[in-house]
Structures are given as C-alpha cells and as structure tokens.
Amino acid sequence: MTRPITDLATLEALYGEPGAPSLAKEVPQLTPGYRALIEASPFFVLATSGPGGLDASPRGDGPGFVRVADERTLLIPDRRGNNRIDSLRNVLADPRVGLLFLVPGVNETLRVNGRAVIDADPALCESFAVDGKPPKSVLAVTVESVFFQCARALLRSRLWDPAVQVPRASLPSTGALLAEASAGREGGEAYERSLAERIPKTLY
C-alpha cells in the first residue's frame, strides 16, 4: 500500500516547522561568507528547466572560476563540452536557475537561486580565457536567494572519505555505457581510447 501526499497541509504536518536558523540563513544576496565558499569551489551543479524538461549539469574548473561580480551577480564561463547545450537551451526558455556549490573537504554546500542570461560579448568571454582559449559564452546569474545546506547529506554519504572511494574499474566504462545505451551504434573500446586522448586536449 502507498500513501501519496497530495496537499501542502499534510506535508507540513508530517515534517513540522523548520528551525529558526534554517530560515535565517537564506538571504537575497551574497554575504562575505557565502562569497568565500563560491570562490573556494571548483565544482557546482547547474539546474535548469525548459520545454524539453529538467536538466542538472555539472560545471567545474579551478577554484574561483565562478566570478563574483558583486553581491547579486555571478559570472560563469561556459567551458567546452559536448555541445548538447541543454542548460543553455533551457535558460533561453526559462531564466530561472539553481546552483549547488561543493568545496572539497567541506561538508556544507551552498545553494543559489536566481535568473540567468547568456552573454557572448567578446571582451567578457576573453576575460575568462585559459591557455588563450575563451569560452563561447558566459552565464550571468542574478542572485535572488542564497543559503548554505547543512552537512548531514555529505556526512551520511562520506563523500570526501578516501576509504569509501569506488575503484573506477569496478563499474562499466564510458565506452561500455555508451554502447549499451545506443544498442551498439556508438561506444566500445575505440571510443574509450579516442576519449582518453581527446579530453586532455579539449578541456578549454
């Protein structure tokens, strides 16, 4: 038997009231502490929504790759990828975005909600160049709310604990995953070899 919850009153009765600190930590702009977390982060997940559905995309580079322009504005270079541009397609249709920042070794995460625009200004893109290679565009996010998430999820998962790291070879390879998903049309060992050679040359 299932007991689906279909109304807000039932849901709130099940969980109870949030604690005062859980509400007080959410603010409409970046505090100095929140800014420090973003500038120390080499990785975040970008959530978007559009006509084709939802998307959660990993984004990473050296710490500070997300530029804090001011307390309400983040600038994010769109580094090279697979050219699916799912996130960017969504932003064109619906500018609302959610960002979840992680800092290696830190169990608290930082959540940012806001609205984004895609900026392809050459001077702006050039300011994010690495090895002489600028991104094709920069995502400019206007912050609407920001707050830190407590450490429980990362403590339960032991995400930063080397003792629980999974050997990559114990799971299907990228070539095997692609071959399985495409019914053998793509992937395999040749794909794995070319990917291993291609990725270091196409990071930027």
UniProtKB/TrEMBL annotation:
Residues 31-150 form the Pyridoxamine 5'-phosphate oxidase N-terminal domain. Gene3D superfamilies: Electron Transport, Fmn-binding Protein, Chain A. Coiled coil: none annotated. InterPro entries: Pyridox_Oxase_FMN-dep, Pyridox_Oxase_N, Split_barrel_FMN-bd. NCBIfam families: PPOX_FMN_DR2398. This is Pyridoxamine 5'-phosphate oxidase family protein. It comes from Azospirillum doebereinerae. The lineage of its organism: Bacteria, Pseudomonadati, Pseudomonadota, Alphaproteobacteria, Rhodospirillales.
